[in-house]
Request: fold
Amino acid sequence: MKMHVLVPLCALFTLTQQVPSRDRCACELTNTEKAFPHDKLTTVKDNASKCNSNTTPQKTLELESLLLGLEKRLPQLQEDVSMLEKEDDGDLYGVISLQVVENELLEIKQLISRLRSTTLEHQFLTNDTTKKVSEKHLLLNTDIQEGSMQFCYKGRLIFFLCICTVYFIIASSHIFLQGNCPHGWLRNVTGPRVYTAGEYPGSYNYGAWGRDSKPEEGKESWYWLVMMTSSNKYSNYVRLYSSLSALIVGESRPGNVQISPSNPTTNTIQGPNTVLYGEALYYNCYNQDSVCRFNLTTKTVTTLQLPKGTRFNSKGNFCHLDECYPFTDLDLATDESGVWVIYTTTQDFGNLVLSKVEEGEPMTLGQTWYTSVYKQAVTNTFMACGVLYATRYVNKDMEEIFYSFDTTTGMERFNIGVFINKMSANIYSLNYSPVDQRLYAYCDSYMVSYKVLFL
Reply:
């Protein structure tokens, strides 16, 4: 007797066990499915494991180490070259210095070579993995009707290749997917690099400082300082320093540039969140929901009216659980593309609103973006490469960059997890400078800077 049946294996086992021993019969099972390809699946699993081992975060760490090594060697090379140029000792020590410079150049050349080979390897892996996943995905769609065995096999194959792809995306996205930023994505903040009380130690708790993000020729090394000299709320001048060392020791040259002879009054500075860009100071106008721009050359002030409902006069401040920072309704920021203003409005229920400030006469408000982060849950904001970053208070020693909003993609993230070591409990102003990729913070009368690391 020959029977052709299609039953599950478990049902077959039940059937044979129920047949009485005295009436045995032989049943031949014909399976119309192809045999499960265990050998092929094992090969796929091995290939996926190899792929994962080649694209783990250690690869990213290797690349980051090479970049940091290059970052440290370049300033040292510049310093040694400067020393070589100054030496005039009858060629005795100049020859030794020249040898040192040659050795440093060789090390830098080797680093660049390793960087090139590493990035090319990652790019090859990206292309190869993408190609394999595309091929298997097409195969799955074509043969999905072949049967449960083949569907199971190809589904698991896609699963393993997708795991490999996800690992590689995590490892390589920081390298290749840089958006519109010439440096890459913000990876970490180190420091502080500068920590000084300046020439007025402990006198003015609120203020801001930094560098002109678009300096005039000959003023690339200048620094500026704005202190809230009236009730910790208002100021009527910006103080200039010809170098960082001059700021630290308190030698202000050319000195103060005055906005108004009295303080406070129309168009004077309200709140600590000010920035300098293109020889112009941008700030919250006194007693207005407007941005003021003070031209340091012509000594003139122009204003930009913000949308109706914008909160001002300390009604939409940055805060944490213990306190709010007064008159921080408007936060001005700079990055590689220009000037931005961060604020909140009644119609947006207190969430952060971001607008581009367009240069020109008169100033105009450019494109506006709306976020879903509540401003009073934020202690500070800054811009870098068209991305808005927000910080929050962790404790008196630590601040966290926890949020980002990408103006190119509109994507929000609440899990940035970059921590800033504080030298004082409160950071009253925080701004990024595209000139040197640093954050400039004003903390309880202290001026602090941090290095921003990108990948």
Remarks:
- The radius of gyration is 31 Å.
